[in-house]
Amino acid sequence: MTQARKKSFSRQAAAGLMAATALAGSAMATPTDSGAATLQARYTALAPQLARNEFQRPLVIESTEAANAVSGNAYAVINYPFSAVTAAFKSPDNWCDVLMLHLNTKFCRTTAGNGSPSGLEVSIGKKGPQEVKDAYTLAFDFKLASATPDYMAVQLNADRGPLGTNNYRINLRVVPLAAGKTFMHLQYSYGYGMAGRMAMQGYLATVGSGKTGFTLVDNPAGGEKTYVDGMRGAVERNTMRYYLAIDAYMASLSAPPADQLEKRLQQWFDATERYPRQLHEIERTAYLTMKRSEHRRQQAAE
What we know:
The chain is of the alpha+beta class. Helices cover 39% and strands 27% of the residues.
């Protein structure tokens, strides 16, 4: 590989690992999962923030950063029955339809173990069109950690990522609410060594420069608070993108099967454009053209 291509791959991989799957996990510390009661208590505690926030929807975004890991959390009320949500996500089968909505996801397929789907292979890369061979593929193990009439917990784990990153964790937990709604906790995280940190810092200093997350933090220079940036900002952006992908996927199920792809693509893009400061990357036509092409590529590979 030439030096120029190595640099190009490093930039693409650094951008991709900022997106690298999404939805929940904890590389810093695996959360103790005491089930429905804990999640219901969290819903009660967050009720004021869910009712009134800058997102204009019942959503709370949080993030943490340690010396060698970063984690994002999305807590949200979604307008779909618990039974529908658990049916959609209790197996790996539908997760690719969610993950493919993200700009950086180039390809996704389920993997089999003992004759049934047991994981996902997710190829991540740049935000524009890209050949799968030039992207990086994460291998996720899938585990249905808990499934009861009032609680579901799903875990996706990938030990290795690009540029020395590791411990990708995606956790989705849900409980039923009144009026046919569901409360969800989506957590996404990964760890990194020196090479991964340097690659991400390079990305944030160049194409990622000036981008922010959603959490307001104290301004070191004083004055008004400012939006968090750096690696916390990046993980918050991608946690939001994947939360919106779950919501768009669930909304698409009300359409006839032939129309579901288009409905979720349109809804996801519209939702991200409500937060242009953090999430705007490309124009609608470019996004739709790219994702339709990637969908055809996946169908051809099946």
